[in-house]
Amino acid sequence: MPDEYELVLLAALLHDVGKFWQRTGEQGAHQQLGGRFIHQYIPPQWQGCAGIISKHHDVSAYLSEGYNPLKIVITADWLSSGERKNLNNEESANVVNTPLISVFPEIRKSQSKNRDISPSEYCYPLKKLEIRYDVLFPVPKEQYPKRQLSHEYKELWSEFVREVSKIKEVSEFEVYFNTMYYILQKYTWCIPSAVWKSRPDISLFNHLTTTCAIAACLRDIELDLTYCTALYRYVSKKELTDAEKESLDDERFLLIGGDVCGIQRFIYSVVSKGAAKALRGRSLYIQLLSETIAKHVLLRLNLPITNLLYCGGGHFLILAPHSAAPKLEEIEKWIAEKLLKIHKGELYVVLGSVGLSSSDLLSKRFGSRWHELSERIAWQKRQKFSSIMNEEHYDELFGATEEGGIKDICSVCGSEAALTPDEDDPSLKKCAFCRSLEHLAKQVAEKRYMLEIPTPTDVNGAPEDSWEHTLGMFGMRYVFVDEVGTLPEGAHVYTINSTAMPTGLCSCASAGFRFLLNTGLKEMSNLAKGSQGMKKWGVLRGDVDDLGVILSEGLGDDQSISRISTMSSMMSLYFSGWVHVICESFSKENSEGDLYGIYSGGDDLFIVGSWSALPKAAGKIYDDFRAFTCNNPDITLSCGITIAPTEKYPVSRAASLAKESLDRAKQSPGKNSICFLRPMSWEVFSGGVAQLRDRLLELIKSESIDSTVSRSLLQRLYAICRMFEDERSRGGTLAAKHDDRYGRWRWMLAYVISRARSGGKKDELLEDVKALVQSNIEHAIVAVRWVEFLTRKEEVR
């Protein structure tokens, strides 16, 4: 007999799947169609959830004694939506014509709340999830095909049930549930959850998974009539008694946040020679470590994958029952002890939590509570290792970690562990752990699948000084392969950067997919050699501006858990999936240099590359991000670029300088800027600065004009730009730009341009240069330096 908890989870996960079927033209109420789907496509042992699904709008049962499994699903459905609604209405007849609308145009920061412009509507195509522009990027509603979508729904439904049918023989619940989770993501990510609303901007996938997450938290709670009546009266827009309000204010849920601390130092403290594998391996390790710890917390709390609401950039978010609060301290202590033993204080995980009530979900305060949790975790990070700050761990925390003296140390991490000469460069000596991370980078670059295999935390069989052993201590082993063979029970197979899930798996293994920035392994020397002009590599860093404000305030009164989840998952698709496509396209074209993706996920990115490719890559990432977020002026991205002065320049220093550049960009008014040589708005960067760069390049290198000008023109223009800056320091920007008393730079510009004239097209270009320098004098020095770098002839040093 199946566990009642299993039936509740599956019913919650599939409770609205009937809407999908209904929109193909199938007749019947969606809850009845959902019941039919269960009987037709789900393994017999779990078909008992059909009764729950077919009655999940049965208010009379909800307000009666008993029926607790049904009450859990109905409660979770209402709390996930966070909407007051007419419970008796089915969706409108126009549902088949209504695509999923992007949530991004709705976002407003506090300073622009009173903006009069109504948000434009952008629609997603009704296609299964793939990392392609025509799939991921929404289009303005007026450009969306004006036709019924029933044909697209039928095609999508046909593929969906075909894939669901392939797992009908699975007998292990967790295997079945996890595979169904990814099948639902693949086919329902683009389907609106509800169309009776004015803006159908919540995906069916996010509504189903958040409903399931809430249901999982209610498993041990007997939902009494007072609570059920209060919730029913609230969603029915009726007045509540004080007792009913108190029942909804009771904190039944716990929002748990995890943060891996020490990431920057851990990833970027590598030497430049041979740094490529080290950087990528360390970045991947942090990703796997945070996911493994998050899943370990889920396991300890007996929660399904749906309750991992977010995981990226070393952060994770879990929805748990409030009864989990006492267990968190024990879990955090256990994790801290493991990491202290392995990393000797270099990496540490903070676990924080805030209570959540039904009122928080119904009044759509989920984003605000998430922000509150983030602030609490930021405060806890100042108390590193506080969970194990006791006599037992005193020597580990405050004592010497190594012997000291004159000894060889690891060329990558600086430890005194046993060292082995590097295979490619014997002058570099590396510890076993660093070598294992480099092997990880190589594996991921070459393989199609990632196997995730549960393993006992005390015995995992991997060499002690390896990333495999570390993750095994948290109960997970990872293997990267090209072909999926025989799998152990409970294994999960991820296809990397494709939603085409592996076929022919045994019934003991689940399947899914994941997106990774994966450009293959590249050395700094080759990146430098591939640059145009001067032969140097550089670093690009970027992240979304004011993401905390967007999460806590951006959706105003519409912060339901489903809507926040939809926004978060869409953002992750861009950084985890689309940035990989951008970097891959640069590697194939290789016209302006190459890119080496280190990390992109959540809301930030870190890319190493040929210096000449980085500005163009930054512009492409920004332009696509703006299109992806529907050109909402309140959702912006800032980037910082630094150029390493030599091939062997320390990566840690280059990473730090790129972070400083990013911080300088974010100090610009309104942020939404790039710092390349100096900070400027994206409008200036892609407008006047780019135009001036192109005109100067044409003057110096083009074969289409009678005679090019020498690079000495750049030196003269550079002197003019510095002259302007001197005048600005004396009289201010306005005076330097417009007052003749500070206008010596303008006279010098006119003189330099006139001396360079010789007739024909060349003179037209020179006039363009003169006009562009005058109109962009504050940032013209960037274009001049840019062209000087692009036209410099040198070898790698």
TrEMBL record:
Gene3D superfamilies: 3.30.70.270
Cofactors required: a divalent metal cation
Entry keyword set: Antiviral defense, ATP-binding, Endonuclease, Exonuclease, Hydrolase, Nuclease, Nucleotide-binding, Transferase
Molecular-function annotations in GO: ATP binding; endonuclease activity; exonuclease activity; transferase activity
One biological process term in Gene Ontology: defense response to virus
One family name in Pfam for this protein: Csm1_B
Keyword Protein transport carried by entry: no
Domain (GGDEF): residue spans on this chain: 535-679
Family (UniProt): Belongs to the CRISPR-associated Cas10/Csm1 family.
NCBIfam families assigned: cas_TM1811_Csm1
The name this protein goes by in its record: CRISPR system single-strand-specific deoxyribonuclease Cas10/Csm1 (subtype III-A)
